[in-house]
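Quick look at the format.
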Amino acid sequence: MLDTATSETTIDTRQIPPLQRHPLIFSTFEQLQPGEGFLLVNNHEPWPLLYQFNIRHPDAFEWEYQAEGPEIWRVRISRAA
């Protein structure tokens, strides 16, 4: 589910079918301008996603945890300035 009511997009993966999650996240990231970001909400540690970001966009993103479980993780992902 995308929430754009606030100034920053939120992607809540708990509401998205698993096969659609990473494509949506990367599509959203690729539309960002430098310095812009979005909030990712997940029900588990998003290590696989971080690994993919490091492969696909090395040095082009910032990853900032805002909540680290155990039930919910929130990560702000932004395009590096």
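Next, a different chain entirely:
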Amino acid sequence: MKNRKRGFSLVELLIVLAVIAALIATITPVALNAIQKAKVTQVAQNLKTLASAFENKAYVDGANAADGLAKLSDIARDVSSDYILYYTHTAGTFTCVVAFTPTDSVNPDKVIEALPTAVKVAPFTTISSWKTLTKSNTGTKDEALSSSDGQIFYPFIFSVY
């Protein structure tokens, strides 16, 4: 009887490695697409959450309380510096826009697909004269608008009685 060594031959190992490489090549685009969709969904949800938080603050504390807000952290926690809230109000009616400056990993078109009321162009021509809330509330409003090629704007209007 012939004494064979136990183990795998080089050919068998190469075949297993080729199968693993093919599986990884198949799964990688799916995983990357899922990560991108998750980031897009997160941005869309953040836009809606900031809008809702500002609206709730105005409802709870009154229309004039919004003027006392200094920065976004007054209405939301852990806000990225990529978000800016513009607002103006007259007679209890607030006209607001939450703006987001996309990073490389977020496709603006996909955010607009996820949140159809969002737009790529500032929805109001007077937005530069509105009050602004940012993460740190430093810099000018014009700097925030001009440095934002490709910004996503989420407009909303509400009234406080």
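The first helix runs from residue 10 to 61.

See the schema section for token definitions.
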